[in-house]
Amino acid sequence: MNLEYEPVIGLEVHAQLLTKSKIFCSCSTEFGMPPNFNICPICLGHPGVLPVLNYQALEFIIRMGLATNCLINEKSIFARKNYFYPDLPKGYQISQFENPVCENGYIQIENDKKIRIKRIHLEEDAGKLIHDRGNVSLVDVNRCGIPLIEIVSEPDIHSSQEAFLYLSKLKQILIYLNICDGNMEEGSLRCDANISVRPKESKKLGTRTEVKNMNSFKNVEAAIEHEINRQIELIKDGGKIIQETLLWNAELNESVSIRGKEEAHDYRYFPDPDLVPILINNEWQVKIKQSIPELPDAKKNRFCKDYNLPIYDAEVLTSSRELADYYENVVKVTYDFKTASNWVMGDVLQIINEKKISINDFSISSQNLGQLINLVNKNIISGKIAKNVFQFMLEESKEPEEIVKERNLIQITDTSEIEKIIDEVISKSPKQVDDYLSGKDKIIGYFVGQIMSATKGKANPQMVNDLLLKKLNKNK
């Protein structure tokens, strides 16, 4: 980390809304369709057509604004953002400039740091250019008219790590609200970063550059770190930062200049004459606010309070709404909150990550996992046997009690039976007995291992330890 200069970063995040139709027409938003399939005269901007706003898209942006502590403007207008590019059939993009739907919000990242949100506005997406067909470029305009919200932060971010945390929190909120799937690889979530550096003590902002084409959180962090270092080295060498737009090349780990950075006046914004102003009254805001689910921070705090979980556990369990729901369904069956947390964070997440599936596709139901935990707590099976039962549950999709009975895995709690096995192990291990009596306490692990092996892991571990020590200590 360079101690002489302070990075100043603002992020522009585009999130595709989970509507079934486009923002101003009835064309489908389905991903992966053949090129130029989901199109009509409206999203292509043919003469004489009139756009009609998708009501659900407007409701979604209000939900996001309320969830990020924004002011919702009572009156909002659409504008035409004029620029000419092959993937923009109309020659302009319908967006918002003055009077966006949402303004002046914030979210909190680690250490309760607030990152202010300048604005969130609605706009339509452009098409896509395909450059891998030899000497020609092809245009796919399926994405034209896809509804987006653009979330513009204030320049409150001062490291690539903070940018990562901010973007992660935004994605988490979007998914919790069920208004965006957060898939960066499919273009559902895109991020551009405005980056500048300045001397540590200075309050004046430096010349900024904009970095585009970052299609993963890892690439966002790497691109920002690279650009910070590039600017600092350039200044140190006596060079001058040029305001420009850069394209990030993840394979080469470098940025490439593609054009000078545009300003608002370059786009010649003016109000769209075909779209009436949006009017959002307080009654509608209240109704939407009431429909917002419990958000990640509130859920995390509740998990700590209601289930007495450490902060780390609560953060992991609430990382997704579905995972949090799964955990809460487990603890409806068992009151052992911490053990339930350990199982979900450990064994369950391990399988999910290995198979690259979501918790919704996990084969063991929350009820069955809760029952498995109860079997251990009731001393019906041991913790070690529970791990084996878990594997059988993955393979057979049976209830844990059924598996335990079928495979005769019920824990041995009969004192006389355990004592008999302990006596046999001690009689066959005279050297280990002498080692223990001479003060080598760690040898206890050997005896326990032999006993558990002889009982195929079914002996109650606490009873084994108590009875074993009692017999060994008789000889002291």
Which key terms come to mind for this protein?
Arc Repressor Mutant, subunit A, alpha+beta, 476 residues, 9-stranded mixed sheet, 3 domains, 39% helix
Strand order of the largest sheet: 2-6-7-10-1-11-12-13-14
Instruction: Compute the CA-based radius of gyration.
Output: 30 Å
Q: How far is the first residue's CA from the last residue's CA?
A: 61 Å
What ranges have pLDDT less than 50 throughout 5 or more consecutive residues?
none
* DSSP strand count: 16
Quickly count the domains.
3
Strand content: 15-25%
Largest sheet geometry = 9 strands, mixed
Number of helices: 15
Give the class from helix and strand content and strand pairing.
Answer: alpha+beta
The whole-number mean of residue pLDDT values reads 91
Give the helix proportion (percent range): 25-40%
**Approximate shape:** elongated
